[in-house]
Amino acid sequence: QTGRQAEAIRTTCPYCGVGCGVLARQTAQGWEIAGDPDHPANMGRLCSKGAALGETLGLEGRLLAPQIHGQEANWDTALDLVAAKFRAAIDTHGPDAVAFYVSGQLLTEDYYVANKLMKGFIGSANIDTNSRLCMASSVAGHRRAFGTDTVPGLYEDLEQADLVVLVGSNLAWCHPVLFQRLVAAKAARPALRVVVVDPRRTASCDLADLHLALAPGSDAALFNALLVHLADSGKVDADFINNINGFDAALEAARQEDSARCNLPQADLEAFLALWAGTQKVVTVYSQGINQSASGSDKVNAILNCHLATGRIGRPGMGPFSVTGQPNAMGGREVGGLANMLACHLELEVPAHRAAVQTFWAAPAMPETPGLKAVDMFRAVEAGTIKALWIICTNPAVSMPDADRVARAIASCDFVVVSDMMASTDTTRLAHVLLPATGWGEKDGTVTNSERRISRQRALRPAAGQARHDWQILAEVGRRMGWAEAFAWDYPAQIFAEHAALSGIAGALGSDFDISDHAGISSAGFDALAPFLWPANPRQRGGRFFAEGRFHTADGRARMLPITARTPQPTDAAHPFRLNTGRVRDHWHTMTRTGLSARLSQHLAEPYLEIHPHDAAALGLAAASLAEVTSPQGRAVLRVLISDKVAPGHPFAPIHWSGETAPTGRVDALVPAITDPVSGQPDSKAAVVAIAPF
Ligand code: SF4
C-alpha cells in the first residue's frame, strides 16, 4: 500500500446490513471518508450515508459522563448502583425480574458479553434486541426450513443471477451499495431481469423490468401461486426434493390459495410466474416488507418453499436472500442476542446445547426456556414484573411499535439504565442511570453483514469524554455482581477469541456457525483481521450453503411448510387508511447520528406522509400542508407529500423522526404492537389510521 491508503484506517460503516468497508483518513479539515476498494462487500463504493460519516463525528449532543437521576456522577458510583440494583431485583424477585434490551448496532463483542451476562450468569433469557423489529421473521423462517438461521448465499449471487426479485425491499434506499452492484450488473448484462414486488413504486422500481404492486400483505399468496405454477409446469427438481420433507403438504396448501387476493393484473402475475419458473438462476431478495408482518415467518417460508422445491439454493446466482437492516443484525444472531437463542446458533431449549455453553462459560445458571421478546418485554415492564431494565444502544421510546405506550412503560419501571452515546433522546430522558458509551469511530470490534462476512470496526480516535465501550461497561457490572473471572477481558480481541472457541464446540454439535479458525487469535491478529466469510474452520471456509441438499435438521432434510396467507389487520370506518412505514435514503433509525449531517437532511428534511392524489383531494389536503394522522395507538403530524407512487388508501410515512421534532413525526407511535406468532416480530408495515388536515 502506498500514499494515502497507507495512512487511512480501515473500518466498516455502522449503518445498514450491506457492511461496506470504509477508509477513514484524518486531514486538516477533519475525517475524510472513502469506500474501501479492497472490501468485498462494496469494492470502493459508498452510499450517501456512509460518505457523510465524517460529518457525524463531532461532540454535539454526546453524553460525556455518567449521570444518576440527571446529575453527573463518577463511573464507580454509577456502576456500583447498577450492579446493586440488578442484584437486589434478582435476589428479591428472581432472575426473570430483570431484562436487557440491546441493539443490532452493537459490535459482536459487546453483544456477546451482554448475552453471556444475562443468559449464563444472571440466569434469565430476558435479553432481546431491536433486531427483533428487523429480521426475526427471517430467523424463524430459516430455522423452520433449514434447521438453523443460515443465509445460504452471497452478494455476488445477485450479479450472477439471471433474475433478481426484490420482495418487500427498497434496496435502492435501504441497501444502496448492494443496489449499486445490481445496477452495474444489469448495465454490463442487460439480459439480467429485475422484478420488484412492493405495494409502493419505490426508487428500486427504476431498475425493474416488472413491478408487481401487489395488495399489502399478500406476498405469501403470490409465492403460493408460484409454488403451484412450478409444480404444474414441471419445474420441481425431483432429485433435490428427496432432501426435503413437507413438499406435498406445502403444495396442497398452496393450491388452496386464491391469487386474486394479490390484486395484480393477470398479465403481470403470469409474466412473473413464467419468468421465475423459466429462469434457473434466480435470487429472491427480501427485507422488511416481508419480515415486519404479523405473518412474516410464513411469508419467509413461502419464499423458501419455492427455492427448495426447485433446488435453486446455495449455487452461484441462486437462492433466497434475506438482507438485514442493521450493520450487525447477523452478529447479534451469532452470539444469541435474541431471547430465544443461544450463542453460536445453538438452541436454548436443547439440553445438550445448553450444557455445552454452560460448561464452556463455567456458568452458574442457565435459563431453560426462552425469555421475553421485545414487545412482550416492554409489556412486562408495563406490568411491573420487570424491576430493572437496561437499554443499550437503542431508542425504543421512538422505534418500538406503540411507542407512546412503551415510553410510559419505561417511565414506570423501578430502575432503568440506558447506555448511549447521545445525551438526549426520547429514551435517555427516561433513565435513572445514564452511562456514556463510545460510538462509531471510537469502538473496536467486529460486525457481520448480510452475506455472513465478518469485518472489523476500528477506532479512529479516543473515546469522547468519559465514554466507555459497551463490552467494558457490561463486564464491569458482571464483575461487580460477583463474576470477576468470567468477565475479565482487557481487549475486544479476547472476547472475539472466546466466541470463536465456543463456536468450535457449537460446530461439533452441528451448528453452522463455526469460526474456530480464529479461536487462538492474538491482539495483533485481531488488529490485522481482514474481512472473512463464515464458516471459518478446518472443515469449511466461506462459500455457500445447501447446494448438496444437506441441512442442519435432525434428519438432515430441509422442511417445506404449508402456508396459508393471512389477511392483515382490517381497516374500519374510523381508521380507513392502511399506513405503510419504512426508511428514507439518507437517514438512519432515529437519526441520532445522521441528523448531525446537514447534507443528509437535504434529501428529505421533515417527517412526511406520502399520500395518493385521490386521497389527498378527498381529505382536502394540499401539497406541503400538515396532516394529522391518528391510530388507536397514537398520533403524528406530518408534512403532506402527494404522490401516485403509493396506492389509494395506502399512504406511507418514514420512521426516523422523534418526539422532539416539530411537527411530531414519531410514526411508531401509530403502529400497533401486533406480532408474528412465531417470530415475535411486530407488524410495523400495517397501522390502520385516520387522516385529517391539521
Ligand atoms: Fe453504509 Fe449501507 Fe451505505 Fe454501505 S450501503 S455505505 S453499509 S449505509
Written description of the protein model:
This protein is an alpha/beta fold and 694 residues long. The protein has 4 domains: 54 residues, ADC-like domains (N-terminal domain of TfIIb, Single Sheet), CATH 2.20.25.90; 274 residues, Rossmann fold; 188 residues, 3-Layer(aba) Sandwich (Dimethylsulfoxide Reductase, domain 2), CATH 3.40.228.10; 117 residues, Barwin-like endoglucanases, CATH 2.40.40. It is built from 23 helices and 26 strands. The strands form 6 sheets. A 7-stranded mixed beta sheet has the order 5-4-16-15-14-6-7, sandwiched between helices. The chain has a 6-stranded mixed beta sheet with strand order 22-24-23-26-21-25. Helix 5 crosses helix 13, helix 9 crosses helix 11 and helix 16 packs across helix 18. It starts with a helix and ends with a strand. 61% of the residues are buried. The structure holds iron/sulfur cluster. The site of iron/sulfur cluster has 14 residues, from helix 2 and helix 8. Its cofactor is [4Fe-4S] cluster; Mo-bis(molybdopterin guanine dinucleotide). Belongs to the prokaryotic molybdopterin-containing oxidoreductase family. NasA/NapA/NarB subfamily. It comes from Gemmobacter fulvus.
